[in-house]
Amino acid sequence: MEQIGHWINGKHVAGTSGRTADVWNPATGEVQAQVALASKAELDAAVADAAKAQPAWAATNPQRRARVMMKFVSLLQRDMDKLAEALSREHGKTIPDAKGDVQRGLEVVEFCIGAPHMLKGEFTDSAGPGIDMYSLRQPIGVAAGITPFNFPAMIPMWKMAPALVCGNAFILKPSERDPSVPLMLAELMQEAGLPDGLLQVVNGDKESVDAILDNETISGIGFVGSTPIAAYIYERGCANGKRVQCFGGAKNHMIIMPDADMDQAADALVGAGYGAAGERCMAISVAVPVGDETADRLIEKLVPKIEALKVGPYTSGDDVDYGPVVTPMAKENIQRLVQSGVDAGAELVVDGRNFNLQGYEDGFFVGPHLFDRVTPDMEIYQKEIFGPVLSTVRAGSYEEALKLAMDHEYGNGTAIFTRDGDAARDFANRVNVGMVGINVPIPVPLAYHTFGGWKKSVFGDLNQHGPDAFRFYTRTKTVTSRWPSGIKEGGEFTIPVME
Ligand code: NAD
Questions:
Q1: Which end of the chain is more exposed for a tag (fewer CB within 10 A), N or C?
Q2: Distance between Cα 294 and ligand 1 center (Å)
Q3: Total number of domains in the chain
Q4: What distance in Å separates the CA atoms of residue 231 and residue 410, rounded to the nearest whole number?
Q5: DSSP state of 444
Q6: Both 149 and 270 in a single domain?
Q7: Could you tell me the distance, in angstroms and rounded to a whole number, from the CA of residue 387 to the centre of ligand 1?
Q8: CA quadruple 91, 151, 231, 412: dihedral positive or negative?
Q9: Structural domain span for residue 330
Q10: Ligand 1: does its nearest atom lie under 6 Å from the Cβ of 146?
Q11: What's this model's pTM, rounded to 2 decimal places?
Q12: Pairing of strands 347-350, 369-372
């Protein structure tokens, strides 16, 4: 059985805690590896070494740090196929989708090549007589990232690239479900020229996460995962005096107005609802057609498209729409929620419950499900299912549809499909959700904008990537400097005022 350890001080090292977790191949259902789960002592040792390496890196000029990112981008491109295969083998997503996962991370690394510009700070010449005032953006020291299973390339890169290019050392605690790609990224960072010790990949579970939260050297933590864990990490990290940003779960609504192009809306829903087996924080999980006639037309268009979805292993190549879910526990949770929807009286228009893939009976495949007439009191509406299950909630009016999206506890992404510019504009202005699509179902902002939800989808005040990442991974120091002759005139006893 393959044993997966950690990446410490530029080398693969075996775990010493004696604890491991199974890593499945979701397509076949086999346990293909065991990943080491770090102890507090292992985590603390990795942090101590990172802290030793960090000052020299912070003193390296930003242009040189940016060049490491530039080289890293070209290595990611060189190894794209290898990374995608390793990613699909542990996660289950299709190869084209795995390449998208790498690509969306790579784009943030590309943005980080602009670090010399982003880190320039501010300068006021002659803020007073002989006085200059300037602000420095300095690294926060050692930062840590705790990342989810569903984007094992993209989210580690969203965290590590800005943290490192700002001059920090970075501890990555990836998901124990799919740990291989983060380790491959660390190897590529080394090949790109990153000095050893600055990027430590420590595999683990709650024990290593708690060790991160309590470690006195770590000064900033970025988390992405489910909302209950996000809330826990935010609270404990902040209580320990750290800068913390946590991105949580989602329940993304797509509103379909009566004037929408129904073919376009149905195509968008199928891709956004079932792509990656629904295991995306920006997946659309609730369709909200406005008016019964719109709902009937939408369902009529949706059903054949959903029934035609091809579900299969990543090894089937590009001919598959989505693959298995990540673990047997994830599959069971989805099945339980589907049953709760049926029991609560929702209409299961496409029933994926008896889905079976010949030759892959032990894989964690889940057939596509479509519910109609879901109501807000149902568990399938309130909870994030994170599977190939789309719920339709019929709204009587635009205001009712808007209120649904606004009243839901999550506020990650949302979309409206319409030909009416006024409705689209009103929706974008009023909805209390962080990322909004207008005739775009998955409005994931590009690397040079920022990514983040509202409400229970986020804890903390800055978004991920884009300019916010440079704010999160640096702290501002403002210097007021005088090289005067005036000092010879004696002390000043009133507060200085710059007139
Ligand atoms: P998860 O919360 O189970 O795990 C995330 C990380 O937390 C992992 O590294 C895991 O090891 C760690 N963890 C798990 N349980 C813990 C505990 N009890 N104490 C401390 N640490 C713990 O999430 P997941 O299942 O890996 O990922 C799916 C979730 O992530 C979904 O809710 C999805 O919406 C969310 N997500 C959000 C975004 C976003 O940007 N908002 C992006 C991707 C995924």
A1: C
A2: 36
A3: 2
A4: 13
A5: P
A6: no
A7: 15
A8: negative
A9: 252-438
A10: yes
A11: 0.96
A12: antiparallel
